[in-house]
Amino acid sequence: MSLSLHPLIVLLFFPGGLFLLGSGMFYEWIDRKLVARYQNRLGPRWFQPLADVVKLLAKEEIIPQGVHPGLFIILPVIALASALTAALYTPLLGLQPYYSFQGDLIVTLYLLSVMTLSLGLAGANSINRFSLVGATRTITQLFSYEAPFMLALLGPAIAAGTWRIAGINEFAGQSLWMILTQPIGFIVALIGLMGKLELPPFDAPEAETEIVAGALTEYSGRGFALFRIGKNVELVVGLTLVSAFYLGGLMNPLEFVLKTLGLLLVMAGLQSLFARLRIDQTVGLWWRMGTLVALLQLLAIVIGRALPGLF
Amino acid sequence: MNTEELLQQAEELLKPWAKEVSRPEDNRLDVRIEREDLLAAVDALILKAHRGYLAAITGLDHPEDEQVELVYTFPDMAALVNLRVSVPYADAQVPTLCDLIPSATLYERELMEMFGVTVVGTPDPARLLLSDDWPEGVYPLRKSFTGFDQLETESES
Amino acid sequence: MEAKEPKKFIVPIGPQHPALKEPGHFEFSVDGEIVTGASIRLGYVHRGIEKGTEQRNWIQNIYLLERVCGICSHVHAMAYTLGVEKLAGVTAPPRAQAIRELVAELERIHSHMLWLGVAAHEGGFDTLFMYSWRDREVVMDLLESLTGNRVHYSTNVLGGVKIDVTPELADTIRKGCDFLEERLQHYLRVVTTDETFLARTRGVGPMTLEQAELLGAVGPTARASGVTRDIRIDAPYASYAEFPVTVVTDNGGDLTARFVVRIKELFESCRVIRQILDNMPESELVAKVPRRIPAGETISRVEAPRGELFYYIKSGGGDRPERVKSRTPSLCNWSTISTVAVGHKLADMPMLLAGIDPCFSCNDRMIQIRRKGHEDQLWTWEQLRRYGIEYYR
Asked: Which pTM value belongs to this model?
C-alpha cells in the first residue's frame, strides 16, 4: 500500500513527526501497562506517557555546572532527530517507506545507534559520577549488542538479496515467515532490541538502585523529555523493523498493529521475567552467545543461498 | 555445657585480672578490671578460649564519682560475661579492642561521641551518629547533658 | 570523610539515593566497576532515643522504644518489657508469653518478606518485588486483625500483653499461614532456580564462618555463613522454651544463602505459630508490676528478624530508668559490608547492602532549622511539638 503525500506533511505529520510521537507514547503506554499487569500491578492510564512529557516540557531545564552547555542542549535534539529520521525508511503502519534507496538498512541501523551514542555523550559530558558510570555502561552495552543485532537483521537482507528495507519487507511478505526459517536470528534481533532500548534485564546503564538514572541523571525538563520521546520512537522503529523482517512483512495497517503489538507482548513478558544483568554479564552474554549464534545463522544463510548455484 | 559451667569457666579464665567478681543474676557474671588489663582479659576470654563474642559496649555515666563506666558484654549461649572498666572524666581513655575484635569499631565510635571516652588506637575515629555540626566536647549521653537550651543558660549564668 | 588517596573515584551511595529507602551514607571507591574500598556514615535519623528514655517513666518507654524501628517494632518493646519484668522480679503469665512469641514470629514473616522484595528490587527483579509485597499484605492484615495496627503493634505492657487471641482469630491466622507457606515455597524455588537471579546472587559477597565470627555478624546474615547462633534457641525468652524453633543455617555464605536462610526461617515461623495456636496456654494476660522498679541492672536479648537485639537496662529504683542501652542487629552487620564489598562490582553493592537487611534506626531530640538570612535556630522537642500542632491546626 502506498500513498503520495506532500514531503512537508510526510516530515511533520504523517508518518513522521506527530504520528511517530503519538505512536511512540502509545507503545510506551502499552509496554508499561503490560509489564505492570505481568507484575500484578494496575499500571498507568492511557494518557500517562503524554502527561509525563507535558509535565517534563513545562519544567525548568537545569543546566548543571561543569557541562558543556551547547552539547548539553543539542544532544537530546540529535537523539530525537536521528530516531525520527530512521523512521522514514521503515514501513510504518504497513505503508511503503517514503524514502528508500539501496542500503538504507545500514543507514537506519546507524541512525538508531546515534540515539545511544548521544545518550553516552550526554552522560560523559556531565561531571556527575552516576552519569559517568552510566555513560561508560551505555557505550559498553552499545558495543556488545550492536554487532549481533546487526548480524541478525542482515540475515533477512541476505535472504532477500537486497539492502533496501522496503525490498526486504516485500520479500518477507511473499515468502515463508522468516521467524520459522531463521529462528535464531529472530531471537537475537528481539533481545538485541531490548538491549538497544535498555529495557530490563539489560537496564544496567540506568539501574536506578546503583547509579540513579545513569547517563540521564543530570537531565531534567526539556532535555529529559526529548530523550524519552526519542526512546519511544526507537521502540516503534525497532518493533517495525523486527516484525517486518521476521514476521512476514508489514503490508497494511492492520498487519502492522497486530504484529508489532504481538511482539511487544512478548517483549514485556521478557522484561518482567528476569533480574537485571550486570554489565559484565551483558557483555559476556552478547559476545559469547549472541554474536556467535548470529554468525552461525548468517553462515547458514549464505551457504543455503550459495549451494543451489554450486550444483 | 550449661550456663553455670560456662560462667565458672569464664570466672576461672578472668581470675588473674579480676578486681571484683559478682554474680548479680543467674546467667550473668560481672568482673571489674583495670583498663590496662582489658586487652589481656579479652584476649584470654575470646581469642584463646573462644568463649562468646562481643555483643555491646555499654557506657554508664556516674557524675557523682566523675567517672564513666564501660560495660563490655560477652554472651556465650545464655551466659553473659560483663567486663566492667571505669575511667575518670579527667583521663577518659581506653585502649581499642579492634586489633582483637575488628567489629568493635562501630561500638567504639559510638562510645567516643556519646560519652567522650577516647578510644586509643581505634582505626576510624570519625563521627558515626551525631551530625557534623554537633559542637565538640558535648556528649549527649552524659547525665550533665540535658538539652541545648539549658546548656546555654548555664554557660551564660 | 575525605578520600585517602587523591586519585580515587568515589561513588557515593546515600544519604539520598534510590537504592536506600532510609538514609545512610556509603562511599565506595571504585576502579572501573570494581570496588576497592568502602566507608560508612550513619546517624541521619539519629533521634536520641537512648537519652529520651531517661526522661520518661517505665511505661512511656515501651511506646518510645517500640518506635526505634518501624519494621521490627514488637521485638524492641518485647526486649524492653522482658528486661523490666526481670528487674521487677515479675514473670508474665504463660498466655501472655505465648502471645508475645506469636506476634514476634508474625513480625518476622512480615519483615523477611519485606526484605525479600527490597533485595529483589535492588537486583532489578521488580516482578519478585511486586509479588512478595503483595503476599506480605496477608501477614500485615493478620497483624492488624490481631493487634489493631499494621506497624506499631503496642502488644506489650509491663507484666504481659494487652491483646488476646480468640478461636476465630486463630483460624484466620492458620489460614493466612497456609497461604504464606505455599507462596514462600514458590519464592524459595525462584531464588534457588532462576538463572538470571542466581547470576546476581550466587558467589556474591561470600563470607566464611571465620569471617562471620570475626566481623561479629548476627542473625540470618551470620546463619547464612554457617554460624549456629540464634537467641531463641541459645537463651530462650518469652515462651520459646515451650514452643521451640530449630535453627536454620546454610553453608553457602553468599547472597543466595542469605535468601535461602531467611525464607526457610519463615517455614519454621509458620510451624511454630501453628503450634502456639494449637496449644495456647490458659491464663491471665497481665501480671502486676510496681510503678517503681527496684534498683538493679539487667541485660535482655531477643532475636529480632535481623539478628540479636541487645538491651541493657539499669534502674535506680525510681519511676524512670537510669540508663537504657539498645544495640540493634544492623549495627553488628554493617562492619561485614566494608570488608566483604572490596573486590566486587559496583553493580553488586545495592544487593550486598540489602543482603544484611539494614535498618537505620537511632535518635535525636532537637532539630536545627536554617533559614537564609536568619540566625540558626535550635528547637527543643517541646517547641517542635508545639509547632507541629499549630501547623496542622
From this structure: 0.81
